[in-house]
Write a structure and sequence with these properties.
Helix 4 runs antiparallel to helix 7. With 157 residues, this protein is mainly α. It is elongated. The chain has a two-stranded antiparallel ribbon. The chain has one domain. About 14% of the residues have low confidence. The protein has seven helices and two strands.
Length: 157
């Protein structure tokens, strides 16, 4: 077994990204610019995955993309309220609520999987072009301590 396997398995944050990382590692060679190629790889794979999710679940594309971008911006995937309902295709009022609830739960699970896979790798940033999001890629999410006051280290004279 190789070292990368143990690193990925030991980190809770990396487990959901395991396949993505392994697929990228398989493309690395001597001409690879790791940072640039990683960014491109993640961007392309993320687009493929969101498009597959939209197609498979017959979700509304614009609403789904906006929902996901808001989740990355906020750092949390909000599954309560009516946000997820807005993504879903219309259903017959006479078809029974059970199948819609089951479909909604399936959509939520897939959205959670997508979010966990890409969270920490992408963060939306305002771009100069309207209606376009530019991504920055970080390997580690930024953590900040909000509740602590700053310490002052001065000598009293």
């Amino acid at each position: 077994m190789n070292t990368q396997y143990f690193v990925i398995k030991s980190s809770l944050q990396l487990r959901s990204k395991k396949e993505l990382i392994e697929n990228f590692i398989a493309t690395v060679n001597t001409s690879t610019n790791v940072n640039t190629d990683w960014q491109r790889f993640v961007s392309e794979q993320r687009e493929t995955d969101i498009q597959t999710l939209i197609t498979e679940e017959k979700l509304k594309p614009e609403e789904t993309r906006k929902f996901v971008e808001n989740a990355f911006r906020d750092g949390i995937l909000k599954t309560t309220g009516t946000d997820v309902d807005r993504l879903m295709p219309p259903v017959s009022r006479f078809g029974g609520g059970g199948s819609r609830d089951k479909k909604k739960q399936t959509v939520i699970e897939k959205l959670k999987g997508f979010f966990e896979k890409y969270f920490g790798l992408v963060s939306p940033e305002v771009s100069k072009e309207p209606d376009k999001v530019t991504y920055l890629y970080d390997t580690e999410p930024t953590l900040s301590m909000v509740a602590e006051e700053s310490a002052h280290y001065e000598k009293d004279v």
